[in-house]
Design goal:
The protein has about 70 residues and is mostly helical. It contains 2 helices and no strands.
Length: about 70
């Protein structure tokens, strides 16, 4: 789970999955994934942790290569 993330860009799809109409429905996705065995740590990574990690790595690389 170190390289995957879930976003909320619903503008790019013609029809959303049944029951998923907006970012407000992300808790449904979280609950379904956890019911399938994904851990709280996995969910943290999927729902923003991976993105923040990448941002930190990019910033660190930028700081070392002005």
């Amino acid at each position: 789970m170190d390289h995957v993330g879930i976003g909320t860009d619903f503008d790019g799809i013609p029809v959303p999955p049944a029951g998923i109409d907006s970012a407000a429905d992300l808790p449904k996705i979280t609950a379904a994934l956890m019911a399938r065995g994904y851990s709280a740590d996995d969910m943290h990574k999927l729902l923003g942790g991976n993105l923040l990690r990448v941002f930190r790595e990019v910033q660190a690389a930028s700081d070392h290569n002005p």
